[in-house]
Every structure is written in structure tokens, then in C-alpha cells.
Amino acid sequence: MTRAITIFLAVIIDLLGGDPPNRVHPVVAMGAWLRRGRTIAPQHRRFRFGAGWVMTGVAIFVLPLRYFEQKFSRAIWMMPLLLKPMFAYRNLRRAALSVMRALARENLPEARRLLSWHLVSRPTETLSAAEIAGATIESLAENLTDSLAAPLLAYAVGGLPAVWGYRFVNTADAMWGYRTAEFEQLGKFAARADDALNWFPARLSGWLLALAAFGVGLNGQRAIATMRAQHARTDSPNAGWTMSSAAGALGVTLEKRGVYALAGGDAPLTTATIRRAVRLADATAALIVLFAAGVAIGAQVFKK
Known about the structure:
Helices cover 72% and strands 3% of the residues.
């Protein structure tokens, strides 16, 4: 029961306070390690260097947590504080709502700025209001996997070392996982490792999102049909599961120009659509937390 209780306590901390300040946030330290690696990376054998740098970083951040968890396993009040920085839902939700409010004021420059700052890496300067709304929904759906399901499941199965290791690999993919001349080889190991670690959480999140759609008055059957037919349309082997499920549930088409179109229906993409998407994400997040807590209980019972 200990890990399940920790999950619930950490979620409460997240909902009440969000992320800790950057000066004490461990993901900021992970980013510093990766920036240093980028600086000193050689011009040749970059894949080997990138893989070694990532694995060394995992060891640096994970091994102390393994010792800590063994030494202070009974300090239940400390565990949620170490789990919380490894996932985030409150800030994701707030970011989506901030874009929605800017669109409601018809302030497209601000909506584009907020979208770029908080949610997407793609250029936003020329996006229309509908495209901004669509990109917001896509990011909200996709991050249900990376920001919530995968870290909570990692903790449920493997405790603090597993979730800190997951977050380091995910951060490495976010910083290095680009198909550019600089990162194609340097970040390939991180990108492939992140794909592998998110394989099950992405599919689980897609199905839980469809299940949540039934509970909040959206179209769960269409979510399932769209997800099953279109999840492979994205470049990522994982992102398409939640995004296509959300497209079907909301009855909209989520499109990235020249890259993919997830056709769940012809309903307009508006601020009202974002609000429905947030309600859907809230219900999905609740199911993810309950599922992770159940896995934690099962893992600890099996261990005994």
C-alpha cells in the first residue's frame, strides 16, 4: 500500500502547488547535465557518446535514489516530495487554459506565444486560431502519457529509481531527440529509449481517454474507432494513441500542417473545444492515477 499512498499524496501536492521552483527542481539539474554533454560531444561517434552520456546521467540520478529508498523506506512523508517533481498535471492543465483564455480574447499573438512557450516546439507564428486550439488539444492529450501515465507507472512498478530514470531519459529525448544534423546521432539512443519506455503507457492512456469520454458525455465509441484506425499516422510510435483518441472523442480533426491529420470529425476547433478537452483530460488523469495506484498495490503484493 505504501507506493499507492505515495502516488495519491504526490498528486495532491501537484494539484495544490504544482512544480517546485527551478532552483531546486531535479529536472533542471538533469537538463544541466545534458547541456554539458551537448557542449563537449565529439564530432565523430556521436551515437556512442550520446548513449554513454545518457546512461551515465541515469546512473548519477538513480543510484542515490535507490540508496535513499532503501534507507528511508518508512519515511512515507518524504516519498511524495521526491515523486512529485517527476510528473506534472496541474501545470499542463493551466497551460492549456491560458491559451484558451488568450483565444477567447481574440489575442492571437499572445495565444501563439503561450502555445510555443508552454506546449509545443513547432513554429507558431502563422498558426490560425483553429490551429492553435488544435495544437493545444494535441499537446494536452500527448502529455497525458509523458507527464503523468509513464512516470506514475514507473514509480508503481519500480519505485523512485525507476521514475527518476524514466524522467531523465524523457528529458534527454526532449532536449536531444531531433532529426537535425546536430542531434540525429547524439540523441538517437535517448529517442529510442523514450519510445520504448512510453510504449505501454501511451496505449494505456489512449484507451483510458476513450473510457473517460463515456463518462464526461463525449463520444467514446468514436474515440476508440479513430484511435484504432489512425494512431499510426504520427511520426512518433506513441503520440498518436492519445491524440487520435482525443480527436474522436471531441469529433474534431487534429492536424499538423504537412505532417499528419487525425480525423475524428468535422466539428470546429474553438475555445469551447479546448474546455471540453480539459474536462476529458481531467477524467483521464483520474483514471490514470487510479490505475497506477492499483498497479503499485499489485506490484507490492506480488513482491511479498
